[in-house]
Write a structure and sequence with these properties.
This protein is α/β, with parallel strands linked by helices. It has one domain: UDP-N-acetylmuramoyl-L-alanine:D-glutamate ligase. It is built from 10 helices and 13 strands. The radius of gyration is 17 Å and the shape is globular. The N and C termini lie close together (about 10 Å).
Length: about 300
């Protein structure tokens, strides 16, 4: 059983239909666990009703709360979410909340240093306190571990320097088709899509890159191979958590040593199912979970 860790924001997505667990690292950990990994989330919630309910909900979902810290003064994070006609979310992320004050403690350090894969992003690094903690934890992982950077560009909470420093720590990059043009502009990448991804891989010595393109599927790149998938057609409820589900499935597939086309295909199937549901952590059907268990 692979040990997989998501590091960063843990919060409530305040959807028009009600509050649901959110935060890319938490979504990632949930789906990695549903696909057979031993998954943990390293984050921080407030010592308030919302924080206690988050911990209870994570436990109910089967996600360990061992590495979720409780802040005595800062509130639990929340995000107001509006969904457009295409199912795309628009986020209003509350600032100065518990996960902005993530600390390096013994439980977090043990989880990070023993992980086979870690996933981290840029959003949770918006505060200097959490930024320092995340970088310490990622750097503490084994040299063999997959360090997956989900750039996750949100509102004004990113910069060229932040992305560049995060890429220096990463060995795997996940980016979507709205984020890639921003990276192209920030880092003066040239040529067509493949050339741009190859430049990113070469500049930061990345072992793999995933480009997700919504209902148009995805492109995966490793040092020796390309894989392109056309996507899985579903009726989209909302796209919250679909990218995180893709990242989790890709990570489990890469750790398992699957052929790249198989990794891509299964990751698209998981992401499409999540997009067909409301919220980022729907129960995965047995047909999806069994495909991972059988192949593992």
């Amino acid at each position: 059983m692979f040990r997989v860790v998501g590091i960063g924001e843990l919060l409530w997505d305040l959807l028009p239909t009600g509050a649901q667990i959110g935060g890319a690292p938490a979504n990632f950990s949930y789906h990695a666990g549903a696909l057979g990994a031993e998954a943990r989330t390293i984050s921080r919630v407030g010592d308030d009703a919302l924080g206690h309910e988050l911990l209870a909900q994570l436990t109910a979902l089967g996600v360990s709360t061992e590495c979720v810290q409780v802040d005595p003064t800062m509130p639990t994070g929340t995000v107001a979410v509006e969904i457009d006609a295409d199912g795309q979310p628009c986020f209003d992320i509350r600032a100065n909340v518990a996960w902005d004050h993530l600390q390096v403690d013994a439980a977090a350090m043990h989880a990070a240093s023993s992980a086979d894969a870690l996933c981290f992003g840029t959003l949770a690094q918006r505060d200097p306190v959490s930024r320092a903690a995340i970088r310490t934890l990622v750097a503490a992982s084994s040299s063999d571990a997959l360090r997956v950077l989900d750039v996750n560009l949100r509102q004004q909470y990113y910069s060229r320097a932040l992305i560049e420093e995060s890429l220096t720590l990463a060995t795997v990059l996940k980016v979507n088709d709205l984020e890639l043009p921003r990276l192209v502009a920030l880092f003066s990448l040239e040529g067509d899509l493949r050339a741009q991804l190859e430049q990113l891989a070469e500049r930061w010595q990345l072992r793999a890159i995933a480009l997700t393109r919504g209902d148009r599927g995805s492109v995966l790149l490793t040092a020796h191979e390309w894989s392109e998938h056309p996507g899985v057609s579903v009726e989209v409820k909302d796209t919250i958590g679909a990218g995180d589900a893709f990242t989790a499935a890709m990570t489990v597939g890469l750790l398992s040593g699957w052929a790249l086309d198989d990794v891509n295909g299964h990751a698209n199937e998981v992401a499409a199912f999540v997009a067909s549901c409301s919220g980022g952590t729907p129960p995965l059907p047995s047909r999806i979970r069994s495909a991972f268990v059988t192949r593992a």
